[in-house]
Amino acid sequence: MTEQDDKQLQALIKRNLKPSTYELQSDLWPRMLRKLDERPAAVSWFDWALLAAVVLCLCLVPRAIPVFLYHL
Questions:
Q1: C-alpha atoms less than 13 angstroms from C-alpha of 22 in its C-beta half-sphere
Q2: The whole model's pTM is what?
Q3: Which of 32, 37, 42, 64 is most buried, taking the most CB atoms under 10 A from its CB?
Q4: CA nearest 26: which of 18, 17, 34?
Q5: Phi and psi dihedrals of 18, rounded to 5?
Q6: In terms of pLDDT, which residue wins out, 26 or 12?
Q7: pLDDT computed for residue 23 by the predictor
Q8: Are 64 and 57 in contact (CB under 8 A)?
Q9: With 70 as the cut, is the pLDDT of residue 44 above it?
């Protein structure tokens, strides 16, 4: 690109992208921390079922242990 092309591109961007006038009314981080403290992360039944399936597989097929460890 030439310098003329760069200037035309900059002018095009400035013309079509208006500066944002929206400002946050408050900081979002304290609200996020409060929301995280409200309830602890819950473990679903599906997670427990996957864990049970992995443990069962490792107990029944011990040769799968290195494969499982490799994928961690």
A1: 3
A2: 0.44
A3: 64
A4: 34
A5: -80, 145
A6: 12
A7: 74
A8: yes
A9: yes
Residue position matching structure tokens 């864990």: 51
CA distance 18 to 3: 23
d(CA 55, CA 67): 13
For residues 65 and 58, the answer to whether their CB atoms sit within 8 Å is yes
Where in the chain are the domains?
A: 44-72
- By the 8 A CB rule, do 10 and 16 touch? no
* Whole-angstrom distance, CA of residue 5 vs CA of residue 24: 36
Q: Which two tokens stand for residue 68?
A: 């499982």
For residue 26 the two structure tokens come to 């408050």
Cβ atoms of residues 68 and 58 within 8 Å: yes
Tell me which DSSP letter residue 2 carries. -
